[in-house]
Design goal:
Helices cover 12% and strands 40% of the residues. It has 173 residues and is mainly beta. It has two domains: 66 residues, OB fold (Dihydrolipoamide Acetyltransferase, E2P) (Beta Barrel), CATH 2.40.50.430; 57 residues. Strands 1-2-3-5-4 form a five-stranded mixed β-barrel. The longest helix has 15 residues.
Length: 173
Amino acid sequence: MTYARFLALAAVFTIAACTDNPTTAPNGTDVGPQPVLPGASLVAISGRIIVTGSGTDRAVDLRDADGNTFRLIGKEAATLASVDGGDVLVRGTPDANPGIVVQEFQVIGMKGRAALDGVLVETIDGYALRLADGSVRVIAGLPAECAEHIGARLWVIGWDENSPVEFGLIAAV
């Protein structure tokens, strides 16, 4: 059982055990104020994705700017494997390994260049990315093969440079 699941289960039992008056025990005795259990705190770490191994032996790690390595686990870790070598911002809960149970992430760089991360949409002006904040960014110069990825999450580089625009699919591999 993961730490996050344990805390969620503990929260459910805590809520179920509550009475209408939190300072009164079920037998009516006043027990005074009760401590509040801390929830799992989210952490944010940026760094480069490093994938090693394959199949069931595959490991997805994040190496930060100080050289610290964190094992990434959870459903989103499989998706992060698709951006091997990319720079990302990961948000999640700490794990004892030391590692992070990834809740969400954003690709911020690929191939040493700044990247956009969003869902590909088609507009009257061409292709665009719908970013996590809901904004839409039209991308001039996306290759025609992007049409097969409408609705998929992509990273895009070169949108603000005089170099070719490149993209890659962000999906579990």
